[in-house]
């Protein structure tokens, strides 16, 4: 049986929705007016989430308070028992045991609070859960996420109270970002940058942490936060990052014919050690896409750049300069064609710690990579010292730059490779000859058409200047011996006469 207040609420709800309400259904315990679910202890889905979130936050807060209390007890016990070694009251193992027991008790209490109602059968609970999606916020975390979370907790323990504050701020930021999925990626980036700045300021001003420890702590915070947020903020569907990735990949594939000599790259891959450095640089720039943390992606760019500097140094027998580094980096990007290049650049720009991008060698190498990509997107014939005709033919695949001559090969090159290069050169020459003949034939055809048009124009001009005056045809003369009726003045016809001899 329902109480009078519950019946009034139920009737009011049925009148609003225009439906019949079965009395076996229960309203939400919280009194929000919605119907509760027996599987959720009589709460509606919205109130269940709120209660679960409150219980979870309360559990986290109590865990931190317990950890602080046990830490103080351990410090007091250690201070009081310095004189005698056997008088220690709390050890680290006992601290872990007490914390585990306390946490198990609290988790059991929360589970009991949200277990299915005893009045509803197990079968009915399964049907209810199958009909409505579960509001549980637990997700199966990946192995890497679990590992990073454990490493982050172990790290912040070394900071004691500042570490506890860092952990609270990170959990609060993650909970806030989980409710801001609808924001644009630029707004989420601003939230992350503001969070980095606020945490760094709190460590410096409130907790007086040295700058070197602040930098290390911010690296761990970035690693923890972005590992959890990676699948939501990397190459989101609301942006055109994927479209840019495909455009850059297509552009690099079209530029496969570019040689180091065209870019003035001071690297000789004939040297085995230099060739190994080039392969390592390409591997590092490709490996960037497999990392989740912006700092780790920057580390891949830095390693790639250092291999490039070593390759230049070995080739030239002197330290490399910035003028040598950028063309070589462009060549490495063209040769490696890294996957999702634009998405990785945008991800680093949006969510990396700003202090790392604005200072240090990581920021310098990242800036050069952005310049290299911009150069590739705008690469033209003038940049490679080529004619526009040759550049267009290379881009369309009609021909390719001339291969090495047979006399420039090393002695250990097999005969088949030499013959192949000669054949390619011969085909290239034949292709150029054919294109030249076709071009001359088209030019001759155009000259003939122009000559015909010129003659026609000249004739038209002459006719226009000297027009022809064509007179009408004159009337035909009548025969002499015909009857001349119209003109009587003509003499009569001659009559034959006979003369006597």
TrEMBL record:
The keyword Acetylation applies. The keyword Metal-binding applies. Gene3D superfamilies: 1.10.246.120, 1.20.5.4770, VPS9 domain (1.20.1050.80). InterPro entries: DUF5601, VPS9, Vps9-like, VPS9_dom_sf, Znf_A20. Residues 78-93 have a biased composition (Low complexity). Residues 242-385 form the VPS9 domain. Residues 22-56 form the A20-type domain. GO terms for cellular component: cytosol; early endosome; endocytic vesicle; recycling endosome. It comes from the Eukaryota. One of its GO terms (molecular function) is DNA binding. Residues 75-94, 124-143, 482-501 are annotated as: Disordered. Keywords: Acetylation, Cytoplasm, Endocytosis, Endosome, Metal-binding, Phosphoprotein, Protein transport, Transport, Ubl conjugation, Ubl conjugation pathway, Zinc, Zinc-finger. It is found in: Cytoplasm; Early endosome; Recycling endosome. Pfam families: DUF5601, VPS9, zf-A20. One of its GO terms (biological process) is protein transport. This is Rab5 GDP/GTP exchange factor. It comes from Chaetops frenatus.
């Amino acid at each position: 049986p329902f109480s009078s207040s519950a019946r009034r609420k139920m009737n009011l709800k049925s009148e609003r929705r225009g439906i019949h309400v079965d009395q076996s259904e229960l309203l939400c315990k919280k009194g929000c007016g919605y119907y509760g679910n027996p599987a959720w202890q009589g709460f509606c889905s919205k109130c269940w989430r709120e209660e679960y979130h409150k219980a979870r936050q309360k559990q986290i807060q109590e865990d931190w308070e317990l950890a602080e209390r046990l830490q103080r007890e351990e410090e007091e016990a250690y201070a009081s028992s310095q004189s005698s070694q056997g008088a220690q009251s709390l050890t680290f193992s006992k601290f872990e045991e007490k914390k585990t027991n306390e946490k198990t008790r609290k988790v059991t209490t929360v589970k009991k609070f949200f277990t299915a109602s005893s009045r509803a059968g197990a079968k009915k609970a399964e049907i209810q859960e199958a009909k409505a999606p579960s509001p549980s916020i637990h997700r199966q975390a990946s192995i890497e996420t679990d590992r990073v979370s454990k490493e982050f907790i172990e790290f912040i323990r070394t900071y004691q109270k500042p570490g506890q504050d860092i952990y609270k701020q990170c959990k609060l930021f993650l909970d806030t970002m989980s409710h801001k999925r609808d924001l644009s990626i630029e707004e989420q980036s601003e939230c992350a940058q503001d969070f980095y700045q606020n945490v760094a300021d709190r460590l410096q001003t409130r907790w007086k942490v040295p700058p070197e420890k602040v930098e290390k702590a911010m690296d761990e915070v970035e690693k923890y936060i972005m590992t959890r947020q990676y699948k939501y903020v990397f190459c989101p569907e609301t942006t055109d990052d994927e479209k840019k990735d495909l455009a850059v990949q297509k552009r690099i594939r079209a530029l496969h014919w570019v040689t180091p000599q065209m870019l003035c790259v001071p690297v000789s891959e004939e040297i085995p050690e230099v060739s190994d450095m080039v392969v390592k640089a390409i591997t590092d720039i490709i490996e960037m896409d497999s990392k989740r943390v912006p700092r780790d992606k920057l580390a891949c760019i830095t390693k790639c750049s250092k291999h490039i500097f070593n390759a230049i140094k070995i080739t030239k027998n002197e330290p490399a300069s910035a003028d040598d580094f950028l063309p070589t980096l462009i060549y490495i990007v063209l040769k490696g064609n890294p996957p999702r290049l634009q998405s990785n650049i945008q991800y680093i720009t949006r969510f990396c710690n700003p202090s790392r991008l604005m200072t240090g060698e990581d920021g310098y190498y990242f800036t050069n990579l952005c310049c290299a990509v911009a150069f590739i997107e705008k690469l033209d014939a003038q940049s490679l010292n080529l004619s526009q005709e040759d550049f267009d033919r290379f881009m369309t695949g009609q021909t390719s730059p001339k291969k090495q001559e047979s006399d420039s090969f090393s002695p250990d090159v097999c005969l088949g490779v030499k013959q192949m290069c000669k054949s390619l050169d011969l085909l290239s020459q034949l292709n150029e000859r054919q294109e030249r003949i076709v071009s001359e034939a088209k030019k001759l055809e155009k000259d003939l058409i122009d000559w015909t048009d010129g003659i026609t124009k000249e004739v038209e001009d002459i006719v226009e200047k000297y027009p022809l005056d064509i007179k009408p045809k004159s009337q035909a003369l009548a025969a002499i011996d015909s009857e001349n009726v119209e003109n009587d003045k003509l003499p009569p016809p001659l009559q034959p006469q006979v003369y006597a001899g």
